[in-house]
Every structure is written in C-alpha cells, then in structure tokens.
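Appendix C reproduces, verbatim, an entry submitted by the partner laboratory led by Prof. M.T., so that reviewers can inspect both the input and the predicted structure.
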Amino acid sequence: MSQSNAATYIQRDLDHLIHPLYNRNQHSGGKVWVGGEGIHLIDADGKRYYDGLSGLWCNTAGFGRQELIDACTSQMQTMAYASGYSGSSNPAAIELAEKLSTITYPSINKFFFTSGGGEASDSNFKMARYYWKKMGKPNKHKVISRQWGYHGVTLAAMSATGIAPYWPAFEPRVPGFLHIPSPYPYRYQAPEGISQGIAAANELEKAILKEGADNVAMFIAEPVQGAGGVIPPQDDYFPRIREICDEYDILLVADEVITGFGRTGKMFGLEHWNVEPDMMQFAKAITSGYFPLGGIGVNDQIADVLDKADDMWMHAYTYSAHPVGCAVGCAMVDVVTGDDFPGQAAVKGKHMLNGLTEQLADHPHVGDVRGLGMMCAIEIVKDKHTKEEFAAGDKIGPQVLAETTKRGLFSRVRNDVYSLAPPIVSSESQIDEMIDILADSVKAVLG
C-alpha cells in the first residue's frame, strides 16, 4: 500500500479508536499492521518487521499456522458460540480442560476459562476468597504481589500489578493489595551473609507477619517477570517462597500468562525450580494469540472444596469456555507438545542469550543482559559501575526502540530495558539477525 493509504489509516484510527496505553500524540506516528507471515509483521507500506515480542508475548507459533486456522474455521462452522455457564458445556472446552490436566502441574486438574490474563487474575482473586470462606477463614482476603510484576489492568488486576505508572490515573486502588520487592538479581540489595534469592523471598514472610497470616489469602508471582523487564529469579528464590506459603497457610499462585506453554524452556515456568503452585493462570500462548482465551487452574484440594459446596461460585463471563477459543486452544496444545516448544525454547533461548551477551555485555552503557528460554532483555544504564539509570527525560529506551523499528525489528521497552521474546519457531539465523539489529541500534544511540 502507498504512504498515503498508511497515513489515511492512521487518521481514521485517530478519529475513532482508543488504544491500550493510549496517548494520541505518541500514537500519531504508529504502525498499521495489515499482514503477518511466519515471524514477520507487515505494515501498511508493505515493509516487513521481525515480531520481536511475539505480538504481546503471545504468538509463539508465528503467523499462518494452518492447524490453528483450521480449528477456528471448523468450530465456527459447527457452533460459533454457546454459553459456558453451569448447566451448559461444549466438547471443545471439555477436551481443552482434559489436555491441560496432562501438561500442567500434577496437582492441578480443574480449569476455568476466561478471555485473557486480566480476567484470569480476577478469577483467581475471587477463587481464593471463596476457598478461604469455605475453609472457615473469611478474613483471609489480602493479595501480595511484587514490584515489577504484571497481572493485568482490570481494577483489581491493576492493583496487583507492581508497575507504578499504571496506577495514578485510576486510583484509589482496590484495598487489600500490597507489594514486596522483586528478586531482581541486577538491583536487589541483600543483607550481608544471606543469599540474594533467600533474602528476596523473605520479603514475603515480612509482609505476611506485618499483615497477619490470618488476613492474607494468596501470593501471586510470575515465574519470570515479563512486562517488568524480563527478570528471572535466583535459583533458591521460589523454593523458599513455597516454604513460606506452606508455613503461613498462604495460596501460591503462578501467573503463567507469559511463561506458560514452553516460553521459558519448560512447559510452565515454576518447573525450573521443581516448585508446584496451588493455583495458576494462563492466556496468550494457549492460542498463540489467534483467539482471545485465558484461564485459571486450581489444585485438587481447592477443586474438592468447590465441588462439595452447596452454594454457587457466583463468578462468570459471557465468553467463559468459548467453543472457538477452546478449539484453537486444543490445536495449540497439540502444536506445543508435538513440536516440542519447551525444548525448542531451551535451545534457541540459550543461543539468543549467548548472542546478546557476546555483542552487548561489554558495551559501556549495557548494565545487564539476562533471560530464560525465549525471553531476554538488555538493561541500559548511564553508569555501568554504579548502575545509575539515565534520566527519564533522556528517553534512551524509546530511542533504541525507534532505531530497531527503523531497521526492521519491532518490540517494546520498559523505561531503558529492551525486551526480546520472538516466536519460539524463530530460526537461530533469524535470532542472530535480531541481535545484530539491536546491537547496531544501541550503538547508534549510545556510541
């Protein structure tokens, strides 16, 4: 399409669309995507870009996967929609729940489906409250999460999200949500004589003791913090978190919306540390982004309490157990297992992290290169020795992002942290090209 057509699209967009994370001035120079092939996005001018963040961490299978297209088409032809409320079901939802029970954590065998990750967060908050009421502990309602954690932006999910810029325009936040420091290996300061991971995990114990264990329902955490800047924890962090939750009778909730279905090199993220959560949530890669779908899974103990209750869990969405979404989810689980996405992500992710380290770790303004599986990031700093950050007004991260976009790599930044999480189906040579683009862009901005 011609430039005039692209400009026309943008003007029509500005006239009528409100976007997520919307600012009209920033959006006026935005892209209009008209196609996708493999791991490339195609804009309205016909230019191709590497999809460096798999859309929003979701499109692990790339564009044009016929299995997913066929599953969607077939289900739409058979039955496009039916209610998923109690007393109504459909074969695709039943099959997807069965498939998930074979690949998720062993004690998690029962699932509730949503339209995405934010709804999944809210569903877990309500499930936890319901469970504790049934267990005779109605005061257990508070939710502890972490700085830099992302759990969605519904009002409750936003209150759990630990990224402060999401809050001011919509405060007051929902009461009963609090945050502890992230384990953030590059920046967390541990007391002398204690490992960084144990010290960071013990922040949870401090918060529980302050709030009172009888008031805390759950601790929610991403196995690897994603939108907060790709922050993998220390190896001793989650085992200690599990101990603390067990000691104080707190539900451990794994937010696997980004890390689920192979992204980190395991099917689900906490498998890296042999830790099993009480509840989990998922979205994004369950359909590779081809259809909006998310959900939660609860362990057998919680499921048993739910099933034996004589009242109703009064929580519902119109699109819960949507047959088309569940059909695509079934096909995607087959892709993930059949093509060994966890194995691919482990090998390719190591290649990506090694390549980023080789090209950028010695740069005077790259303070940290980190990642796990097919999710990596570089953190740009003003002073490598002190870890001092550039002033926000310098907009170094956005400048690097603009340079990578100009060179054909489209991704996102959190301040001066550039995230790279391309589709799992990316080849090593394509990953190398993305690394070259990022390295060239850092040098273009910072020398």
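The longest helix spans residues 341-360. Additional entries are available on request from the coordinating office.
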